Amino acid sequence: MESNISTIKSLLPDLSDKDIKDALESFNNNIEETINYLMSQPVVVEDENDRLFKEFMKSEQEKLEKGHNERSYLCSICYDDLPIQDFYIMDECYHRFCIDCIQQHYLSQIRSGYSDIKCPQNLCKYKVKYQEVQHILKGKDFDLYDQLLFNHSMAKDKNVRYCPVPNCSSIVISQPDGSCQCPVPECGYEFCGFCRNASHSGMTCAQFEELQEELRTYTVTNTFYKKTKRPNHMDPSSYLFRPSFSGKSWKKDGFDMVSGATKVWILKNTQQCPHCKTIVEKNMGCNSMACHCGHLFCFGCGKSREQHNNYTYPCSTKLKTDAHITN
Predict the structure, then answer these.
(1) I want to staple 203 with a disulfide (CB 3.0 to 4.6 A). Which of 207, 213, 221, 237 is the partner?
(2) Above 60 in pLDDT, residue 212?
(3) What is the reported pTM?
(4) SS3 content of the chain, % helix, strand, coil (to 5)
């Protein structure tokens, strides 16, 4: 192909390489038919006036660009006179500001939590496009904007919740029944997506509030628990027990004062440690319980592990009685 182009070029020097190549492809690289075809076509010679006009327009364009580059413009934010290359012109509204000012404007809006960034020109309602922010902000600054957009998008989803554990705040998808569990392995906190309290499966939010109120009235913090070092808040084991029960013991005759519906739930889901009398709730696993005091006991009957033999420990079901409740 290249040799044929060179051959034809030597015969018809006014033709461009592209025109010759196109003609060769049309005639399947047949050089004789291509030459005959090209010689039959009129040769368009650029008019001298056209050439001079193009040169003139190019010269004027260069002068215009040079003038723009040498001229200074006023930034309406910082009021500095700067060359045009230091400015950014907004899309659609065409307001222009120096790049430093527009960067600071974007960052100020983002750090204030505004995902819809507007043109800084007074009374202008133009909302900046994603690509414009991407053009101005780089690295961590743009990542901050991306995160803000993501958070605003998640906030519009009625099923999205945020883990309430301090220093976590991970996104959690609420299940239809309102149950939520943090997906972070180091956390794993379970809570209610409706009331944001600790998980209270088996109870409505109103019932859980009633339970908390009665526990505040009829329980006290166990003195043994006060002396015991609690696990770090990011330790999953700290969430095996709801905050309402952690370190609580019944006041004298306190359990007898609990309302009927709440008492039934407590009997089904909690047990007292036979060593320190702390109320322990079971929300998963088998009946083998380990209290914060270190004592091992059976959730089924409330007895210490030493009171069971190896074949019957622990009991497979919980005894439906309050005989083991001590005040």
Answers:
(1) 207
(2) yes
(3) 0.47
(4) 40, 15, 45
